[in-house]
Amino acid sequence: MAATLGPSGWWWRRWRWRRRLSAWDGSRMLLLLLLLGSGQGPRKVGAGQTFEYLKREHSLSKPYQGVGTSSSALWNLMGNAMVMTQYIRLTPDMQSKQGALWNRVPCFLRDWELQVHFKIHGQGKKNLHGDGLAIWYTKDRMQPGPVFGNMDKFVGLGVFVDTYPNEEKQQEAQKRRYSPGVQRVFPYISAMVNNGSLSYDHERDGRPTELGGCTAIVRNLHYDTFLVIRYVKRHLTVMMDIDGKHEWRDCIEVPGVRLPRGYYFGTSSITGDLSDNHDIVSLKLFELTVERTPEEEKLHRDVFLPSVDNMKLPELTAPLPPLSGLALFLIVFFSLVFSVFAIVIGIILYNKWQEQSRKRFY
């Protein structure tokens, strides 16, 4: 018994205690690495060498720190938008409201993916609700207007979650019907690229200018609804997860989309005679790193105006700059001098013509 309490026994217990501490430290370190790996570190997505990095300056999640109306906030509210504990409400279920949420930091990423967690719900029954929400990547921010609460003739990309079929209701009022291949089922997701020359046709639900779209039943669901916008190698993809299965489903895929860098992300909504609650739960932007060949590097140079290959957008005509006071004075002065000079030349020619006429008469 005394031998077990001697130096050897003391050393054995100390060694076992250190081993337990080492094992516990190793488990804690492994847990820390797992947490870090599931957070901001790079994560491989899709086929090929594609990794994503969460960009906090362009992302928004609970508890919604950095949201406000001050110039120092990363996200600015506009209109009737307000911060709640579980979401940011762009518009309440009330008539004639509009609100928006805009990122203050311009995005200079080359390839990116925006994941939007949203919720649309209200008291309105079928086709008695509206109007929907929009996700933006545009040159201008905080510009209220008629296009889901944002300005018309915007410059950039707009993705619309439209919940009210304006065109269909007009057709019904005129007692006309669509052919089965033309009619769209609402709610409907569509995308539009604009260089500032196109106007969104609200009466036709943006049909003349849409790049593509799909039906998305997103109202009054009891599970989470998500939308993802991915822009990689001039390729625009819009997918949705609205079935509660945690699976992305394709909606829009358009190659040859050219978007400039340095634009702003935002989201907006509007209600009219019909209304809904339009809520944003989170916005998460990921930088995507992809490999490019030398040929792709040449083709994917920066652009300064949005465009889509094989789609002709009207060119903008820049207005002439106003004339300064000195320029206007010089124009008027030389115009008067030229007029006086022309009158003098005319009188001289007239007198010579009269003299020649008199000589002929005599």
From TrEMBL:
Keywords: Disulfide bond, Glycoprotein, Golgi apparatus, Lectin, Membrane, Metal-binding, Signal, Transmembrane, Transmembrane helix. Residues 1-47 form the signal peptide. Pfam families: Lectin_leg-like. It comes from the Eukaryota. The chain crosses the membrane at residues 326-350. It is a single-pass type I membrane protein; Single-pass membrane protein. GO terms for cellular component: COPII-coated ER to Golgi transport vesicle; endoplasmic reticulum membrane; endoplasmic reticulum-Golgi intermediate compartment; Golgi membrane. Residues 52-288 form the L-type lectin-like domain. One of its GO terms (molecular function) is metal ion binding. It is found in: Endomembrane system; Golgi apparatus membrane. GO terms for biological process: endoplasmic reticulum to Golgi vesicle-mediated transport. This is Lectin, mannose binding 2 like. It comes from Myotis myotis (Greater mouse-eared bat).
